[in-house]
Amino acid sequence: MKPLSKYIDHTILKATATKTDIIKLCQEAKEHDFFSVCVNSCYVSLAKAELKNSAVKVCSVIGFPLGAMSTIAKVEETKQALKDGADEIDMVLNIGLLKSEDFDAVYKDIDAVKKVMPNNTLKVILETCYLNDLDISKASALAIQAKAEFIKTSTGFGTGGATIEAITLMKNAINNGNTKIKASGGIRDTDTALQYINLGVDRIGTSNGIAIVTGQASGDKSY
Protein backbone atom coordinates (compact mmCIF):
# COMPACT_ATOMS: atom_id res chain seq x y z
CA MET A 1 0.00 0.00 0.00
CA LYS A 2 1.27 3.48 -0.89
CA PRO A 3 1.56 6.09 1.89
CA LEU A 4 -1.84 7.18 3.20
CA SER A 5 -1.14 10.80 2.22
CA LYS A 6 -0.88 9.79 -1.44
CA TYR A 7 -4.54 8.74 -1.48
CA ILE A 8 -5.67 12.22 -0.48
CA ASP A 9 -7.07 14.94 -2.74
CA HIS A 10 -6.92 17.80 -0.19
CA THR A 11 -10.10 19.69 -0.91
CA ILE A 12 -11.80 23.03 -0.43
CA LEU A 13 -14.85 23.70 -2.59
CA LYS A 14 -17.16 25.78 -0.42
CA ALA A 15 -18.58 28.97 -1.90
CA THR A 16 -16.92 31.14 0.74
CA ALA A 17 -13.38 29.87 0.12
CA THR A 18 -11.01 32.83 -0.18
CA LYS A 19 -7.61 33.21 -1.81
CA THR A 20 -6.11 32.94 1.67
CA ASP A 21 -7.92 29.62 2.16
CA ILE A 22 -6.51 28.29 -1.12
CA ILE A 23 -2.97 29.33 -0.21
CA LYS A 24 -3.33 27.60 3.17
CA LEU A 25 -4.70 24.47 1.45
CA CYS A 26 -1.65 24.34 -0.81
CA GLN A 27 0.76 24.85 2.09
CA GLU A 28 -0.91 21.99 3.98
CA ALA A 29 -0.77 19.76 0.90
CA LYS A 30 2.97 20.34 0.57
CA GLU A 31 3.57 19.84 4.28
CA HIS A 32 1.67 16.53 4.41
CA ASP A 33 2.66 15.31 0.92
CA PHE A 34 -0.91 14.89 -0.32
CA PHE A 35 -1.49 13.69 -3.89
CA SER A 36 -3.34 16.84 -4.94
CA VAL A 37 -5.38 19.83 -3.98
CA CYS A 38 -8.93 19.99 -5.34
CA VAL A 39 -10.35 23.46 -5.94
CA ASN A 40 -13.00 25.30 -7.92
CA SER A 41 -11.81 26.28 -11.38
CA CYS A 42 -11.39 30.00 -10.62
CA TYR A 43 -8.55 29.09 -8.22
CA VAL A 44 -6.58 26.71 -10.45
CA SER A 45 -3.96 29.28 -11.47
CA LEU A 46 -3.46 30.40 -7.87
CA ALA A 47 -3.06 26.80 -6.66
CA LYS A 48 -0.66 26.02 -9.52
CA ALA A 49 1.52 28.99 -8.57
CA GLU A 50 1.51 28.05 -4.89
CA LEU A 51 2.48 24.45 -5.68
CA LYS A 52 5.29 25.32 -8.08
CA ASN A 53 8.33 23.06 -7.62
CA SER A 54 6.32 20.58 -5.53
CA ALA A 55 4.99 17.12 -6.39
CA VAL A 56 1.43 18.06 -5.42
CA LYS A 57 -1.02 18.02 -8.36
CA VAL A 58 -3.87 20.45 -9.00
CA CYS A 59 -7.37 19.06 -9.49
CA SER A 60 -10.26 21.24 -10.65
CA VAL A 61 -13.97 20.46 -10.37
CA ILE A 62 -16.07 21.10 -13.49
CA GLY A 63 -19.82 21.60 -13.76
CA PHE A 64 -19.87 21.74 -9.99
CA PRO A 65 -21.89 20.89 -7.97
CA LEU A 66 -25.07 20.16 -9.96
CA GLY A 67 -23.72 18.85 -13.27
CA ALA A 68 -26.73 20.45 -14.97
CA MET A 69 -25.05 23.01 -17.21
CA SER A 70 -24.62 22.52 -20.95
CA THR A 71 -21.95 20.21 -22.31
CA ILE A 72 -20.38 23.19 -24.10
CA ALA A 73 -20.08 25.02 -20.77
CA LYS A 74 -18.39 22.01 -19.19
CA VAL A 75 -15.99 21.66 -22.11
CA GLU A 76 -15.02 25.34 -22.04
CA GLU A 77 -14.56 25.30 -18.26
CA THR A 78 -12.35 22.23 -18.67
CA LYS A 79 -10.24 23.89 -21.37
CA GLN A 80 -9.68 26.95 -19.20
CA ALA A 81 -8.82 24.87 -16.12
CA LEU A 82 -6.25 22.92 -18.13
CA LYS A 83 -4.83 26.16 -19.55
CA ASP A 84 -4.56 27.49 -15.98
CA GLY A 85 -2.56 24.42 -14.96
CA ALA A 86 -4.99 21.73 -13.80
CA ASP A 87 -3.54 18.24 -13.85
CA GLU A 88 -6.81 16.44 -13.16
CA ILE A 89 -10.51 17.19 -13.70
CA ASP A 90 -13.45 16.06 -11.54
CA MET A 91 -16.63 16.64 -13.57
CA VAL A 92 -20.18 16.18 -12.33
CA LEU A 93 -22.28 13.82 -14.42
CA ASN A 94 -25.64 15.18 -15.65
CA ILE A 95 -27.86 13.58 -13.01
CA GLY A 96 -31.13 14.81 -14.51
CA LEU A 97 -30.37 13.30 -17.89
CA LEU A 98 -29.40 10.03 -16.20
CA LYS A 99 -32.72 10.03 -14.31
CA SER A 100 -34.46 10.78 -17.63
CA GLU A 101 -32.80 7.62 -19.00
CA ASP A 102 -31.22 9.68 -21.78
CA PHE A 103 -28.09 7.61 -21.51
CA ASP A 104 -26.71 8.69 -24.88
CA ALA A 105 -26.72 12.32 -23.74
CA VAL A 106 -25.01 11.40 -20.45
CA TYR A 107 -22.32 9.50 -22.35
CA LYS A 108 -21.80 12.34 -24.85
CA ASP A 109 -21.48 14.86 -22.00
CA ILE A 110 -18.63 12.89 -20.44
CA ASP A 111 -17.07 11.99 -23.77
CA ALA A 112 -16.93 15.64 -24.87
CA VAL A 113 -14.96 16.57 -21.78
CA LYS A 114 -12.62 13.59 -22.07
CA LYS A 115 -11.88 14.39 -25.70
CA VAL A 116 -10.37 17.78 -24.79
CA MET A 117 -8.15 16.21 -22.13
CA PRO A 118 -6.80 12.96 -23.61
CA ASN A 119 -3.61 13.10 -21.55
CA ASN A 120 -5.08 14.19 -18.21
CA THR A 121 -6.96 12.24 -15.56
CA LEU A 122 -10.75 12.60 -15.66
CA LYS A 123 -12.88 11.67 -12.67
CA VAL A 124 -16.66 11.55 -13.13
CA ILE A 125 -18.74 12.42 -10.07
CA LEU A 126 -21.89 10.29 -9.95
CA GLU A 127 -23.50 11.94 -6.87
CA THR A 128 -24.63 8.56 -5.59
CA CYS A 129 -26.88 9.96 -2.84
CA TYR A 130 -29.45 10.77 -5.55
CA LEU A 131 -29.15 7.43 -7.35
CA ASN A 132 -30.62 3.97 -6.84
CA ASP A 133 -28.57 0.84 -7.38
CA LEU A 134 -29.42 0.59 -11.08
CA ASP A 135 -28.58 4.28 -11.57
CA ILE A 136 -25.17 3.85 -9.93
CA SER A 137 -24.36 0.82 -12.06
CA LYS A 138 -25.49 2.56 -15.27
CA ALA A 139 -23.71 5.83 -14.47
CA SER A 140 -20.52 3.91 -13.73
CA ALA A 141 -20.80 2.00 -17.02
CA LEU A 142 -21.31 5.21 -19.02
CA ALA A 143 -18.28 6.89 -17.43
CA ILE A 144 -16.18 3.80 -18.07
CA GLN A 145 -17.40 3.69 -21.69
CA ALA A 146 -16.35 7.34 -22.10
CA LYS A 147 -12.86 6.38 -20.92
CA ALA A 148 -12.85 8.28 -17.62
CA GLU A 149 -9.92 7.21 -15.46
CA PHE A 150 -11.97 7.39 -12.25
CA ILE A 151 -15.56 7.22 -11.10
CA LYS A 152 -16.24 9.24 -7.96
CA THR A 153 -19.03 8.95 -5.43
CA SER A 154 -19.99 12.47 -4.44
CA THR A 155 -19.62 16.24 -4.61
CA GLY A 156 -19.94 16.61 -0.85
CA PHE A 157 -22.80 19.03 -1.53
CA GLY A 158 -25.59 16.48 -1.91
CA THR A 159 -27.66 14.79 0.76
CA GLY A 160 -24.98 12.18 1.48
CA GLY A 161 -21.44 11.11 0.71
CA ALA A 162 -19.59 7.88 0.06
CA THR A 163 -21.08 4.58 1.22
CA ILE A 164 -19.78 1.03 1.18
CA GLU A 165 -22.85 0.01 -0.84
CA ALA A 166 -22.16 2.56 -3.57
CA ILE A 167 -18.47 1.67 -3.72
CA THR A 168 -19.37 -2.00 -4.08
CA LEU A 169 -21.71 -1.26 -7.00
CA MET A 170 -19.03 0.87 -8.66
CA LYS A 171 -16.45 -1.90 -8.22
CA ASN A 172 -18.82 -4.40 -9.77
CA ALA A 173 -19.36 -2.10 -12.76
CA ILE A 174 -15.60 -1.82 -13.28
CA ASN A 175 -15.27 -5.61 -12.93
CA ASN A 176 -11.66 -6.34 -13.89
CA GLY A 177 -11.17 -3.12 -15.83
CA ASN A 178 -8.64 -0.36 -15.21
CA THR A 179 -11.03 2.38 -14.05
CA LYS A 180 -10.35 3.53 -10.51
CA ILE A 181 -12.63 4.79 -7.74
CA LYS A 182 -12.51 8.02 -5.76
CA ALA A 183 -14.53 8.06 -2.54
CA SER A 184 -15.59 11.47 -1.27
CA GLY A 185 -18.07 13.03 1.09
CA GLY A 186 -18.10 12.35 4.82
CA ILE A 187 -14.64 10.76 5.10
CA ARG A 188 -13.18 12.50 8.15
CA ASP A 189 -10.96 10.04 10.04
CA THR A 190 -8.24 7.45 9.52
CA ASP A 191 -10.41 4.39 10.14
CA THR A 192 -13.04 5.44 7.60
CA ALA A 193 -10.39 6.25 4.99
CA LEU A 194 -8.69 2.89 5.50
CA GLN A 195 -12.03 1.11 5.26
CA TYR A 196 -12.53 2.52 1.77
CA ILE A 197 -8.93 1.94 0.72
CA ASN A 198 -9.25 -1.69 1.80
CA LEU A 199 -12.34 -1.92 -0.44
CA GLY A 200 -10.12 -0.95 -3.37
CA VAL A 201 -10.53 2.83 -3.53
CA ASP A 202 -7.55 4.62 -5.10
CA ARG A 203 -8.30 8.18 -4.05
CA ILE A 204 -10.02 9.95 -1.15
CA GLY A 205 -11.55 13.39 -1.59
CA THR A 206 -11.73 15.19 1.73
CA SER A 207 -11.26 18.47 3.56
CA ASN A 208 -10.11 16.41 6.55
CA GLY A 209 -6.89 15.05 5.04
CA ILE A 210 -4.72 16.27 7.92
CA ALA A 211 -6.93 14.52 10.48
CA ILE A 212 -6.81 11.35 8.39
CA VAL A 213 -3.01 11.19 8.07
CA THR A 214 -2.30 12.31 11.64
CA GLY A 215 -4.98 10.17 13.29
CA GLN A 216 -6.45 13.18 15.06
CA ALA A 217 -10.13 14.05 15.17
CA SER A 218 -11.24 16.99 13.07
CA GLY A 219 -14.01 19.43 13.86
CA ASP A 220 -14.52 20.11 10.15
CA LYS A 221 -17.85 18.63 9.13
CA SER A 222 -17.64 19.76 5.51
CA TYR A 223 -16.33 17.70 2.56
UniProtKB/TrEMBL annotation:
Keywords: Cytoplasm, Lyase, Schiff base
Gene3D superfamilies: Aldolase class I
InterPro entries: Aldolase_TIM, DeoC, DeoC/FbaB/LacD_aldolase, DeoC_typeI
Reactions mediated catalytically: 2-deoxy-D-ribose 5-phosphate = D-glyceraldehyde 3-phosphate + acetaldehyde
CDD domains xrefs: DeoC
Major location (coarse): cytoplasm
An example molecular function term from Gene Ontology annotations: deoxyribose-phosphate aldolase activity
Location(s) in or outside the cell: Cytoplasm
EC code: 4.1.2.4
Gene Ontology cellular component list: cytoplasm
HAMAP family per record: DeoC_type1 (MF_00114)
Family of the protein in this entry: Belongs to the DeoC/FbaB aldolase family. DeoC type 1 subfamily.
Matches recorded under PANTHER family: DEOXYRIBOSE-PHOSPHATE ALDOLASE
Protein name stated in the entry: Deoxyribose-phosphate aldolase
Organism: Olleya namhaensis
Gene name linked to the record: deoC
